[in-house]
Design goal:
By secondary structure, this protein is an alpha/beta fold. It has 13 helices and 11 strands. The protein is globular, with a radius of gyration of 20 Å. The strands form 2 sheets. The chain has a 7-stranded mixed beta sheet with strand order 1-7-6-5-4-2-3, sandwiched between helices. α1 packs across α10, α8 crosses α11 and α11 packs parallel to α13.
């Protein structure tokens, strides 16, 4: 059965053929388990080419684990994490950050998904006061939950603010490839060069089957992370099936091709929606997401053939995500369906 491509999430897309080939290739013979294998060493080497030789890199199964364990490595239970009110950490991880780290999440209203120094400063107080959760980490998402993108300067400004208070900057990079392509830059410019301390590097939304990488830019911060990962139930015995995917994603700039196509499709969708003239787009289209306001009665009818999520029930704001395998034909059919529904 061939399912129609929708616009709910880039998680809904299948696995890129090159990734499947890599998985098939490493599925031969026996290798040592738990990451002590040549494929995992190669995967780490490939990531270091993009992020720097002085990085310390660990593979985990999913994005929630990458975020939570990365934060766990930098904090104690009496610490606090400052993040956007729309952050995946706050909205979509079922309380896992609080449960597993014990940290309090301090949220900042962020209509476009982006933190600003002014918004962060409201939480920068109570240091050394035992009745107050101690601010320890600022977490940003790149690209954001609203499809917007932090510039290198914006990240550096937040990192400098964090470090001036002896805090750390964590980046949820579930869609960092889309952000890098949008900015026309490499990964280092928006991570290590900008002052990020720990990164959750995502591949699942960009053509991989599963797996994320936790990347520390200062190995001193990851001295005990192998124990944190094991206690967090994220030490894969057959780790080659994660690491080989990263090697394939990074080879021949597949990460860039996939992300560029997804971004281009979002721009194409936005152009078609604007040309139709019936729907308001609510956020800048900078990565692979389009946010728009729809009449409430049209949403369920449109979802029948092209599934997507309602982002804000109160305002009827919806989110349309494009993927590495989205086609112009998919978008043309989608916009045609929208126009047909408006015409009724």
């Amino acid at each position: 059965m061939k399912a129609r491509r929708g616009f709910a999430s880039d998680n809904n897309a299948g696995v890129h053929p090159d990734i499947l080939k890599a998985l098939h290739k490493v599925n031969e013979g026996h290798v040592v388990s738990y990451g002590d294998d040549p494929y995992t060493r190669k995967g780490i080497e490939d990531l270091k080419e993009h992020f720097g030789e002085n990085t310390d890199i660990y593979f985990v199964f999913n994005g929630t684990a990458a975020n939570v364990l990365g934060i766990k490595a930098l904090s104690h239970s009496y610490h606090a994490v400052i993040c956007s009110d729309l952050a995946h950490l706050n909205v979509d991880e079922c309380g896992a950050p609080e449960k597993y780290t014990g940290c309090k999440l301090l949220t900042v209203p962020s209509p476009d998904g982006k933190l600003t120094p002014d918004g962060i400063r409201q939480h920068l107080h109570g240091f050394g006061f035992e009745h107050h959760a101690q601010p320890r980490i600022i977490s940003v998402t790149q690209s954001t939950e609203m499809g917007t993108v932090y510039t290198p300067h914006e990240i550096k400004t937040i990192a400098d603010l964090a470090h001036s208070f002896a805090m750390y900057l964590h980046m949820d990079g579930a869609r960092i490839a889309n952000a890098a392509v949008s900015l026309g830059t490499d990964f280092r410019k928006i991570t290590s060069d900008a002052g990020v301390d720990v990164l959750s590097f995502g591949g699942t939304k960009n053509g991989m089957m599963f797996g994320e990488a936790v990347i520390f830019f200062n190995p001193e911060l990851s001295r005990d992370f192998k124990y944190v990962r094991k206690q967090g139930m994220q030490l894969g015995s057959k780790m080659r099936f994660i690491s080989a995917q990263f090697s394939a994603l990074l080879a021949h700039e597949l990460w860039k091709k996939n992300a560029a196509h997804a971004n281009d499709m979002a721009q194409y969708l936005a152009e078609k929606i604007r040309a139709a003239g019936m729907i308001k787009i609510t956020q800048p289209v900078e990565a692979n997401a389009v946010f728009a306001i729809l009449p409430p009665e049209l949403i369920p009818r449109l979802q029948k053939n092209f599934f997507f999520y309602v982002w804000n029930e109160k305002t009827c704001e919806v989110r349309w995500m494009t993927s590495y395998d989205t086609t112009r034909e998919d978008i043309d059919q989608f916009v045609k369906e929208i126009e047909k529904l408006f015409a009724r």
